[in-house]
Each structure stands twice: as C-alpha cells, then as structure tokens.
Design goal:
2 domains; Maf protein; 16 strands; alpha/beta; 19 helices; about 40% helix; 8-stranded mixed sheet; Rossmann fold; 6-stranded mixed sheet
Length: about 475
C-alpha cells in the first residue's frame, strides 16, 4: 500500500487516497449545485471511511433553506459560510467526545453554478474548508471564489472536483506554508480550466498571513489574471465592485502615487461624470498595477507591493493588480465583470506608445485588431499632457502629431469621441515622476513631500514605506 500512495502522489486520486488512509483528518462534505464531485473522489479511490463522516447535497432550494437558513443568493459567500457554520458545529457536537482526541476535524463546502442547458450561466462558485490543524485545536478557514473556464458543464464539474480535493489536501498537508498551498490548487488542472479570483485565509494557523499578499500570489502563480482590493485594503471579488458601474482605470507604477496621479484621476472623473449617459454617483475609480511592472522594479515583489497598496489606500483608492500588459486586455477583463462604461486615462507619452505598430506583433490584425478590441468595449481614452523626454517641452493632445501610417486611425478616434484630451498641472509638477520621488524618499530629501498628497505623506511616514527612514 505505501508504494501505491507514492505512485499517486500529486495526482487527485493519490491525494484522496492518502487522506483516506490517514485517520487523523476526518470530516464532512456539503455540496450545492454543480459541486457534486469532491466527495465522490474519496469514494472512488477506496477507504473513504477513513476520511468521510458524512456527505450531503441540499440540491433543492427549500431543502437548503431548511438546513442553512434562507438567503437571496445560493451561490454566494454568505451561503458558503452558513454551510460551514452548520456542518462544522454539527461535526463537533456528534463526534468530538468519540474521536476528538485523535482526529483533526474539518468541514468542506461548496456552492456552485456551472453551465446550464441554455448555455448562458455565470459559471462561478464558492468553495471553503474549516479545519483543525491537530486534534482539539481552534478552527482555521480557507475561502475561495472560482470561475470555471471549460465550456461544457460536465468538464466544469470535473474541474471543481479536482479543485476541491486539492483544497482539502492543502489544508491537511500545507497549512504551515500558505503559498505552497495556493500553488497546489491547480494540480492536475492547469491554468485554462479554473480561475481563482479571490482567496481568504483566517485562523490562528494563518496569523502571519497577509491576504493581500496571497492575492498577489494568485496572479503571479497564474491562478487568476487579476486581483482587486477595496479602498480600505480588503480583498474583494471584482464583480462586487464593478457590476453595472462606470469604471475609470488609471495604470501606472505608483511607487509612490503622486500629485499628478491624483490630478489625472480627478480630471478623468469630472470628464466621465459630465457624460449625460453616465450615472456619476456610481463611478468606480481604480488604479492599476501590472505584475510585470512589479517584477521589473524589484526582485522581491511582496514588501514593495504592500507599500504601494498602503499608499494607495491612504489616498482612498481601490486597486487592480493584473497580468495584463495591454490596455485592450484589461478593458476586456473589466467588461467581463459587467462594467458599464470604461474610461482609461493615460499620459500622452503612453498614448503615443499605444499607436506603435510593433507593439502588437503577436496579433494577426496588429494595431487595428488591438484598437478594435479596445474600442469594442465602448472604451474612452482620456489623454493627459506630459513633457517630451527629449526636449522637455509640454505635449498636449491638440498638438500631437503621429506618423502618417497611423494618422487616419488617430483622427477617426478623435472624431468619434473615443479619444479626448484632459487639462493638466503646470510643467514643474509634470517633471517630477514616481521614480524621482522614490529616490528622494530614500535619500531623505524633503522635496518628496511637495509632490505627494498629504494623506499619502502621513502613510509613508507612519509605515516607513518605500525606504523612508524618518
């Protein structure tokens, strides 16, 4: 039997069998909707009595309500937590006296909507586990939200089963190494079947865990293309913030966020709010950072990333961290989560770069395809003035001249209102960028405070961010 376990290691069946043969990890399974495959893995490989105290499926909504309480949404974090509360408490009530001294208990739950017959389902789900790391210990918890990328319902169910086994195994074996646990969630799956866009670790076993950093790891490990953080620094699902709301996304380095960044956001919001078709009171403003930029800036992205998040939150900014290098990709991502209108404010030098044809050599349609995919989402580009890096002269959209090859396309976008110019700050403020301010902070040069908003200054000083030494 030991040789069999070794042969199965790292496969879904091997993980389930290993846990079945370990009486020290014992629990219950509750699955709603499409998530009916997790418990089945443990039955399939044999020896399930070693792991499973109970499996159940409250498939009918009235049955689910009778057990877990009523709720407006069945595929939600609230329903998942209600399931974990009920099942974990019931497990302890029934079995703690009998085997609580020898087994670490767990309750696993999921509530999922997979593809339906009509083919129009929002294929997503919530999955979680509440568990002890050793007998009689306090409970810890891992929650995640997933999107299924397979086209067929059967394939989505299969992928959910594998993900569930990976989560249970990770809780049992890798609780002391959360990053390894995250990395193991796609074992036997790959990156084209499941996307995990939100994860939360809580409990004494994870007292040193920063969920913001784990969300960055989701993107770095390829489990998700993006992670989102509220203005208060909480990890959130993108749809919670974006659904049917106008969105402004400004991308940059934000190391640290500067007065120029703030002015760009302010003017872009004013411009979008002036559109009579936009509900000004529902505008969401995001600042976006790409993982490739993080990697290019520092060797260890963790601490530097948290510094940026702290500084951005101090300015009351929500943040999007993504693997997307191109604007059309990030626009498609926002549209996927039902963002209503999308505005992308960009500095004029970055705008010129958008029209460089060699940038899109990986697309069969080149620049035209990129612009078509970008404008196909109803995007408006707001162009903020800047200084020419060669001459130091101010460059505005009105006076911009592009090459003859792209001039007609540029004029067309101007005439249809897809590209609009913004006013900007004086030249002396435009000349100071994030890199210069970062250097001044490290050198103790007080000029950095003149180019950063007061709230961000206080956050940098209070948290010794970006190498600040007082």
């Amino acid at each position: 039997m030991p040789n069999t376990i070794k042969a199965y290691t790292k496969t879904t069946g091997g993980k389930a069998l290993e846990l079945n043969l370990d009486p020290g990890f014992y629990g219950s399974f509750a699955e709603i909707g499409a998530g009916q495959e997790v418990g089945r893995w443990f039955f399939r490989v044999g020896g399930a009595a070693g792991t499973i105290a109970k499996t159940m499926s409250a498939y009918d909504k009235k049955v689910s309500d009778a057990i877990y309480g009523t709720g407006e949404r069945y595929v939600s974090s609230g329903r998942l937590i209600a399931m974990l509360d009920h099942e974990y408490d019931l497990l302890l009530e029934r079995l703690d006296l009998e085997r609580g001294g020898e087994s670490a208990f767990f309750a696993f739950a999921d509530t999922v909507a997979a593809q339906n017959y009509a083919g129009d389902a929002d294929c997503n789900g919530w999955m979680g586990i509440r568990f002890q790391t050793h007998p009689q210990s306090e409970a810890n918890q891992i929650l995640l939200h997933t999107r299924m990328l397979d086209q067929e319902g059967f394939d989505q169910q299969e992928a959910l089963g594998i993900l569930g086994v990976n989560l249970i195994y990770g809780a049992a074996r890798y609780a002391d190494d959360p990053e390894r646990l995250l990395g193991s969630l796609l074992d036997d799956l790959g990156r084209r079947r499941i996307e995990i866009d939100m994860v939360e670790f809580t409990g004494s076993a994870f007292s040193e865990v920063d969920n913001r950093l784990l969300s960055l790891r989701l993107v770095e490990f390829g489990l998700s293309q993006a992670a989102m953080f509220s203005a208060s620094g909480e990890v959130i699902r993108p749809s919670e913030l974006l659904y049917k709301r106008p969105v402004i996304l400004q991308r940059g380095r934000f190391r640290p966020p500067t007065s120029v960044h703030s002015d760009i956001e302010k003017r872009a919001k004013e411009r979008l709010a002036a559109d009579p078709n936009v509900d000004a009171g529902r505008i969401v403003s995001l600042l976006g950072i790409s993982v490739s930029e993080l990697r290019a800036t520092v060797t260890d992205s963790g601490e530097d990333f948290l510094d940026r998040i702290e500084a951005l939150n101090a300015g009351n900014h929500s943040v999007l961290v993504s693997n997307y290098t191109e604007y059309y990709l990030v626009a498609e991502y926002l549209a996927r989560y039902s963002a209503a209108e999308i505005a992308l404010p960009v500095g004029i030098m970055n705008f010129v770069e958008l029209f460089r044809e060699g940038r899109y050599s990986d697309l069969s349609g080149g620049l035209l395809e990129a612009m078509g995919r970008l404008m196909g989402q109803g995007v408006q580009i707001y162009v903020y003035p800047g200084l020419d890096p060669q001459t130091g002269e101010r460059v505005e959209l009105d006076g911009l001249e592009l090459s003859a090859e792209v001039h007609t396309l540029f004029q067309y976008l101007l005439e249809r209102g897809s590209v609009q110019g913004l006013e900007g700050l004086p030249d002396e403020m435009l000349s100071v960028g994030s890199d210069q301010i970062y250097a001044w902070i490290g050198e103790g040069d007080p000029r950095w405070e003149e180019n950063v908003l007061p709230g961000v200054v206080r956050a940098i000083k209070a948290g010794n961010l970006f190498g600040y030494q007082g």
